[in-house]
């Protein structure tokens, strides 16, 4: 079962996307990354509430131990174990607005 596609938007000169509500509890999330500003890694953050505390679940680059590789402009599936609310966090400010597609799945 898959949820509908949602868009996480990172504004110009920002590092953090808006909150994406997957509208359900999913085991996995498919993430389609757009080009990021050079030398900017990204991380998946999750929370149990839309206005809750978001914590890094996965880094989408290989800068620190435990991160997973996601090539820029590619799709990846990450295990989110029932998280409903996600954000994408970048290591540096983005030089343009970025749109990242995300959907939940089991």
Q: Summed up, what is this model?
A:
With 106 residues, this protein is mainly beta. The chain is built from no helices and eight strands.
What shape does the CA trace take?
globular
- Tell me the β content: 35-45%
Rg, alpha carbons: 12 Å
Element string (H = helix, E = strand): EEEEEEEE
Strand count, sense and barrel status of the largest sheet are: 4 strands, antiparallel
Strand order of the largest sheet: 1-8-3-6
Could you estimate the helical fraction of the residues in percent? under 10%
Structural class, from helix and strand content? mainly beta
Distance between the termini: 6 Å
The helix count comes to 0
Mean pLDDT: 84
The total beta strand count reads 8
Low-pLDDT segments, ≥5 res: none
The quaternary organization reads as: single chain
Question: Can you give a write-up of this model?
Answer:
The strands form two sheets. Strands 1-8-3-6 form a four-stranded antiparallel β-sheet, with no helix packed on it. A four-stranded antiparallel β-sheet has the order 2-7-4-5, with no helix packed on it. It has a domain at 20-91. It is globular, with a radius of gyration of 12 Å. It is built from no helices and eight strands. The model has no long low-confidence stretch (mean pLDDT 84). The protein has strands at 6-10, 20-21, 28-32, 42-47, 55-59, 75-79, 85-90, 98-105. Helices cover 0% and strands 40% of the residues.
